[in-house]
From TrEMBL:
SUPFAM superfamilies xref list: Ribonuclease H-like (SSF53098)
Pfam families in the record: rve (PF00665)
Stated name of the protein: Transposase InsO family protein
Origin: domain of life: Bacteria
Region (Disordered): 324-362
Biased composition (Basic and acidic residues): 349-362
Length: 362
């Protein structure tokens, strides 16, 4: 049977459509096997669907299937249920029950059989006193079409010269421009310090009560009551990553990586809090005003933040077009490099499901 139909129930109307297409192709002079192949079914399938001038319905839904000979009887299922509900096994999964019974010389079924029986009788649930594991849905998607709409923030460790002692860099980054809009270095992690930094940043960026989204991970300072209350007071919508999923806050993580891979990064640690603050201040100025960001088409975050990127990229394009006009043989038919400003930036974009046809093509 063809790839399009294998293993799938087909209605009479769908079969009739396929048969009609194939018969029309045959009447127009096409060979029957080739017509079936073009329709996506095999010749054998066509002959099974179309017999004596009629399109037959799929008989599988009405088929009478005999019970397997090795099916557990009601009494055997009852034994498995009773054993699973014994006091000593009530909090254990089948993977613990079956080996214990085997040690006692008893065998009522495999682990999969126990799971199947428990599921059949509505008892396949979390067993034991511990909380059942919970799934976490992907964080909400946000798109920034301009500065001051979505901020990402995080705290990273800065090593000191004393082993085991760290300083903490609080950092807020504008998603649209990648600009560090607020940052401080402290000796401890604190929701109060984070709340104060957030308020100062929003005042400086004129983002109070604008519906700004603030995304972070699930650290204690991020989810502290003080930070949540301050965000609500300032009209900020909070968004959080899934637990232990750093990819949900990729922009902040990428910025921290850029910082710690700088050639001047002090691998032996900072000697004092003041030294750490001075180093971070120098890095922030470089990152915002000198670093040509690859994801911004090589303009600085400040240029993107202030809208200067459009004029800068347009000037680059004019410069390259002039160079191409002056010496076209070196360029050939190639266009000058892309000098268009990058579009909106999306945080945690939804992943499109891959269709089966695309998987097969890959």
């Amino acid at each position: 049977m063809g790839e399009r139909q294998r293993g799938r129930l087909t209605s009479v109307s769908e079969r009739t459509q396929y048969v009609t297409w194939i018969r029309e192709a045959k009447e127009s002079g096409a060979r029957l096997p080739l017509a079936c192949e073009e329709a996506g079914i095999s010749l054998r399938t066509y002959k099974r669907w179309y017999q004596d001038g009629k399109v037959l319905a799929d008989k599988r839904p009405d088929a009478v299937r005999t019970e397997p000979a090795n099916k557990l009887s009601a009494a055997e299922q009852a034994i498995i249920l009773n054993v699973s509900n014994e006091k000593r096994f009530a909090s254990l999964p089948p993977t613990q029950i079956v080996p214990t019974l085997l040690d006692e010389g008893l065998y009522y079924g495999s682990e999969s059989t126990f799971y199947r029986v428990l599921k059949l009788h509505g008892q396949l649930h979390h067993r034991g006193r511990s909380a059942a594991p919970k799934g976490h849905k992907a964080p909400e998607t946000f798109e920034a079409t301009g500065p001051g709409q979505v901020f990402c923030w995080d705290i990273t460790y800065l090593p000191s010269a004393v082993r085991g002692q760290f300083y903490y860099w609080y950092m807020l980054e504008d998603l649209f421009s990648r600009k560090i809009v607020g940052d401080e270095v402290h000796e401890q992690e604190s929701g109060e310090l984070a709340a104060e930094l957030l308020q100062r940043t929003l005042l400086r960026e004129n983002c109070l009560h604008t519906g700004l989204v603030l995304h972070s991970d699930n650290g204690a300072p991020m989810k502290s009551q003080t930070m949540r209350a301050k965000a609500y007071e300032l009209g900020v919508t909070t968004s959080y990553s899934r637990p232990r999923v750093s990819n949900d806050n990729p922009f902040a993580e990428s910025l921290f990586r850029t910082c710690k891979y700088r050639p001047e990064w002090p691998s032996s640690g900072f000697k004092s809090l003041d030294e750490a603050r001075q180093w971070v201040l120098k890095f922030t100025r470089w990152y915002n005003y000198e670093h040509k960001h690859s994801q911004l088409n090589f303009v600085t975050p400040h240029q993107r933040h202030t809208g200067q990127d459009k004029a800068i990229l347009a000037q680059r394009k004019r410069c390259m077009e002039a160079a191409k006009a002056a010496n076209p043989s070196r360029w050939g038919k190639r266009d000058v490099r892309n000098c268009e400003p990058v579009g909106p930036t999306t945080l945690n974009p939804e992943k499109k499901p891959v269709k089966q046809e695309e998987k097969q093509a890959a």
